[in-house]
From TrEMBL, chain A:
Cross-referenced SUPFAM superfamilies: GST C-terminal domain-like, Thioredoxin-like
Superkingdom of source: Eukaryota
Name of the protein this chain belongs to: Glutathione S-transferase
Keywords, alphabetical: Transferase
Residues of the GST C-terminal domain: 85-208
Catalytic activity, EC: 2.5.1.18
Domain GST N-terminal, residue spans: 3-83
Organism ancestry: Eukaryota, Metazoa, Chordata, Craniata, Vertebrata
Gene: LOC106021440
Top-level EC class: transferase
Alphabetical list of InterPro entries matching this protein: Glutathione-S-Trfase_C-like (IPR010987), Glutathione-S-Trfase_C_sf (IPR036282), Glutathione_S-Trfase (IPR040079), Glutathione_S-Trfase_N (IPR004045), GST_alpha (IPR003080), GST_C (IPR004046), GST_superfamily (IPR050213), Thioredoxin-like_sf (IPR036249)
Annotated source species: Mesocricetus auratus
From TrEMBL, chain B:
Family recorded in the similarity comment: Belongs to the GST superfamily. Alpha family.
Organism: Mesocricetus auratus
GST N-terminal domain ranges (all copies): 3-83
EC number: 2.5.1.18
Record PROSITE patterns: GST_CTER, GST_NTER
SUPFAM superfamilies named among the record's database cross-references: GST C-terminal domain-like, Thioredoxin-like
Protein name according to UniProt: Glutathione S-transferase
Amino acid sequence: MSSKPVLHYFNARGRMECIRWLLAAAGVEFEEKFIESPEDLEKLRKDGKLMFEQVPMVEIDGMTLVQTRAILNYIATKYDLSGKDMKERALIDMYAEGVADLSEMMGQLIVTPPDQKEAKISLIKDRAKNRYLPAFEKVLKSHGQDYLVGNRLSRVDIHLLELLLYVEEIDSSLLAPFPLLQALKSRLSSLPNVKKFLQPGSQRKPPTDEKALEEARKAFKF
Amino acid sequence: MAGKPVLHYFDGRGRMEPVRWLLAAAGVEFEEKFLKTRDDLARLRNDGSLMFQQVPMVEIDGMKLVQTKAILNYIASKYNLYGKDMKERAIIDMYAEGVADLELMVLYFPHMPPGEKDAALATIKDKAQNRYFPAYEKVLKSHGQDYLVGNRLSRADVYLVELLYHVEELDPSALANFPLLKALRTRVSNLPTVKKFLQPGSQRKPFDDAECVESAKKIFS
């Protein structure tokens, strides 16, 4: 049994990317087994490794975990990125769920029909600009600290950093009104583990390209 | 500051129902402030009470928590319904997230456009029968214990039992092939706190009917 966590997913960002980010930020080396064909997925299912027949799945510490949040919570707790007590965790969870909501909207873009895409992108930009980014800027302003919760790095700083990079990919001007978020982004990007993960050649995945997606949709029927 | 948690939502199940179930199962008394108009929602937003301008919101222990999962996690931790250690928590989270996936479809069902309802119902029935119920039946069979994790009640049991009741409302024979799930439901339903919650007159909400759906539309439009 490998002592490193093993991540089972497609060779794409999808729902596994936030897990890759968190492990990387925690300085944890991990292996990846990519699902490349429907047969690969079928095999995992037949072997009984996927509780709900779905990926992401991560083998870690003798467990075969599915469900992104279950995996993230475990990693965060294990590597002390979950706050110092119940109340800090509540804030971390609240902020992380907000990040997840906007991420989910962005994630849905790749399966949005072309005629609805523009409206969807418009909505994402509106929500980023008027709901989510202001909320997090306000948190940083309220305490003036370097991290979102408890004056130290927690999982939600990493989740937010990842989100900010995706927001920039859609429209780099969206961050302009938010100086504290920009400062957080710089600060986090300079942390050694994060810096390493941001370099070319790391396990960080690029944006999903249209051609690869089209092939995947045909093969996996989604 | 009130000692009891205060739940802010419309008078319906929606996304708040799992919170009501968990508080009730934990034996925690709570108050509810129902949103009835768009102005009610606007007021909460203008107060700065809603971090992402959305409900559910629960005032608890000096916090104004939004995001259902954050609220449920806090309640589960506070009332010891979250396992004894990190690994039990991971399993509980995995099971709870599976329930959440199906429960979200179920709770949203009454609020769907009429033309989409048939397909949605078929999906719910199919997923319940072929993906989710078998997965939990298998867990119970694997260890033969009375509860899903760690041989004692956790949030996963409460959440699953809630789901079982809700799916059965939509599909009366849904539990026919799952004897261990039926037994779990009976067992959990007989716990004093849950038994009380299942009685008429409790804060448990009925199926979101047409009037409730109309009301929600008005508030959130």
